[in-house]
Design a protein that fits this description.
three-stranded mixed beta sheet, single chain, alpha+beta, 3 helices
C-alpha cells in the first residue's frame, strides 16, 4: 500500500504533536533503541503512525493520526495493535504491556510504500516459543503470521472490521 505526500506530512505533524504534548518521549523505559537521534525518533514515530493509517484504510476503519492512544486504546479500531518495522523481512515484536485481547498486525516497509505482512492474536504471540532471550519481548517471524486477507474471515475480524 502507498501513502501520499500529504499523508506523510500529516504523519510528521502528528509525531511532532505527540512529542510536544508529552505523549511520546525518547527516554521512556519501553524503548530499546535509545541510541537514535531526536530526528530519527520523530521519523520512526511518523512511520509508525503511517503504518497504523495504512491498516485502518485496508480494514475500512476511521483513523485519527493525532489521537494519542498510549497503550490504553487499540491503535486501530477496537482491537488492532499495529507493529511496524522498516525491514521487509522483519519480525512482529510484542511487548509485556501490549493488551492481551488485541490482534497484532505487522506492517513492513518505509514511506511511502508499506506492506501488511500478517496478523496474530497478542495472546498467541506471547507464547514461550516466540520469547526473546535477552529482553522481555516476543518476536514472531512472518511465517507464523496469518495473511491479512484471512482477518475478515476469522472470528477476530467480524466485530471490528
Amino acid at each position: 500500500m502507498q501513502i501520499s505526500r500529504r499523508d506523510e506530512l500529516i504523519c510528521l505533524k502528528a509525531a511532532i504533536s505527540f512529542i510536544e504534548n508529552g505523549d511520546e518521549t525518547l527516554d521512556t523505559p519501553r524503548r530499546y533503541n535509545t541510541n537514535i537521534t531526536f530526528y530519527e525518533r520523530v521519523g520512526e514515530l511518523a512511520e509508525t503512525i503511517a503504518s497504523e493509517w495504512v491498516v485502518a484504510r485496508y480494514l475500512g476503519i476511521e483513523y485519527d493520526p493525532f489521537e494519542p492512544k498510549m497503550k490504553k486504546k487499540a491503535d486501530v479500531g477496537d482491537k488492532f495493535e499495529v507493529k511496524w518495522t522498516r525491514h521487509i523481512e522483519g519480525q512482529l515484536i510484542v511487548y509485556e504491556y501490549d493488551r492481551k485481547n488485541d490482534i497484532a498486525i505487522l506492517v513492513t516497509g518505509q514511506t511511502p510504500h508499506y506492506y501488511i505482512a500478517g496478523w496474530i492474536p497478542v495472546t498467541i504471540a506471547q507464547k514461550t516459543r516466540f520469547r526473546h532471550s535477552h529482553q522481555p519481548t516476543w518476536w514472531v517471524s512472518q511465517i507464523n503470521l496469518q495473511p491479512i486477507e484471512n482477518l475478515r474471515k476469522s472470528i477476530h475480524g467480524h466485530s471490528a472490521v
